[in-house]
Amino acid sequence: MCPEPVRAPSSSVIPDGMEVTGQLQYDAWWSKGWPPVEQVRPDVWSVPVPVPDNPIRYTLCYLLFGDDGLVVVDPGWDTEPGWAALEAGLAAAGASVEAVTGIAITHVHPDHHGMSARLAQASGAWIAMHRAERNSLPRHAYPMGTVADSDRRWVTQQGVSPEVGAELMMSDSGLETFRTMAEPGVLLEDGDRLPLAGRAIRVIWTAGHTPGHLCFHDEDNDVLLTGDHVLPRISPNVGLQPHTAAPPLQPYLDSLRRIANLDSAEVLPAHEWRFRGLDTRITQLLGHHQERCDEILAVVGDLGPSSAWQVTEKLTWSRGWAAVRGFQRRAALAETIAHLSYLVEQGRLARSTNGSDDSVIEYSLVA
Ligand SMILES: [Zn+2]
Ligand SMILES: [Zn+2]
Fold first, then answer.
1. Measured CA distances, 45 to 195, 205, 255 (Å)
2. Residue of 72, 71, 184 whose CA lies nearest to 131
3. Distances 80 to 172, 243, 325, 351 between C-alpha atoms, Å
4. Residues 255, 296 share a domain
5. Would you give the end-to-end CA distance of the chain in angstroms?
6. CA of 1 to the centre of ligand 2 (A)
7. Ligand 1 centre from 57 Cα, in Å?
């Protein structure tokens, strides 16, 4: 659900065309320290909020001040230390929880949207997100009582053995985290402006990592809040899971190209550090998915007709497949399926099944 940590390069070398602008964040990342609350522009603040038990470690929440309002973008994971970090960030910026008038969400993953309900309750602020993201909330997307069955069918169709499959199933506690998440009172569409007087914050729909992912372009400051869509080092997980409305890789690649015209902007991501060089980063990410597709075609060429699980096991993972465990395996499998589905859409692979509901789906090269 978070950006995929299994495929990030371990090198701290910054490629040509990219420039670290959040030097303190960058130093903190590599020294395993904690980045400071920072005033990025007179009316834009960056607040790190801890993510428990996760190598991503923190979400960069942003505070946007308007003439008579304050919008919090991605308040972070709902924990007591997280709440304390958010309160401290607001205090450093001369504000308080009560001053928050709006909460804007890049996407509903718990490291972004987790604390929205609590913050909205404490402040009375509205919550805004894209319509497609609202529709992906479990209350809308997963009818009660259907999750275990559809998960079981899904892992079977991917060729996962029952023993391994158990490890990949959505847990009740994981689902509960999603089920208790706040509903939005404001639905945003591509091209909208955030309701914040005195500011021009444009909403850009960047489907891929999730169906309704949004970026926010602060036009006067020329800073781009990219959520998990573009991060300086990690390639965000783009996966096709059960309940995902549609194959996400083509939309993700299109969404990358859609923001390529904003190369002048300083990028304010939700994790890691601020940087410049959006075009360079987009080119890298497009290249990364191209390489992954090439690798998958080679694996299917070697194996012959194969399930998504067989392909996943053969792909390269930065710390090796054996080190990818538990729920990470679900993310890896979902990402492989996203690429396989894209290659089917492209006419490079054929998908076959014997037609029954629980038969294994096989992929083969198109001659
Ligand atoms: Zn995230
Ligand atoms: Zn995410």
1. 18, 23, 26
2. 184
3. 22, 31, 28, 47
4. no
5. 35
6. 5
7. 10
Ligand 2 centroid – CA 67 distance (Å): 30
Q: Using the mean position of ligand 2's atoms as its centre, give its distance from the Cα of residue 79 in Å.
A: 17
Task: Report how far ligand 2's centroid is from the alpha carbon of 116 (Å).
Answer: 15
CA of 237 to the centre of ligand 2 (A): 8
- CA of residue 165 to ligand 2 center, whole Å: 23
What's the gap in Å between 115 CA and the centre of ligand 1?
13
Contact 201, 182 (CB under 8 A): no
Q: Using the mean position of ligand 2's atoms as its centre, give its distance from the Cα of residue 106 in Å.
A: 9
Nearest ligand to the CA of 239 is: 2
Kindly state whether residues 277 and 307 are assigned to the same domain.
no
**What ligand has the least distance to the C-alpha of 213?**
2
Of 105, 97, 121, which Cα lies nearest the Cα of 215?
Answer: 105
Ligand located closest to 236 CA: 2
Tell me whether residue 161 is in a domain: no
Q: What is this structure's pTM?
A: 0.94
Q: 217 in a domain, yes or no?
A: yes
- How many domains are contained in the chain? 2
Q: 352 and 242 in one domain?
A: no
pLDDT at position 9, please? 55
Residues 102-123: tens digit of each pLDDT: 999 999 999 999 999 999 999 9
Tell me the pLDDT tens digit for each residue of 131-172.
999 998 877 777 666 777 888 888 999 999 888 888 888 776
Please report, for the domain that includes residue 352, its CATH number.
1.10.10.10
pLDDT attached to residue 141? 75
Q: Which residues are close to ligand 1, an ion, with C-beta < 5 A?
A: 2, 111, 228
Q: How far is the CA of 210 from the centre of ligand 1 (A)?
A: 11
Domain of 45 in residue numbering reads as 5-142+172-288
Residue 58: closest CA among 32, 97, 22, 38: 32
**In a shared domain, residues 267 and 301:** no
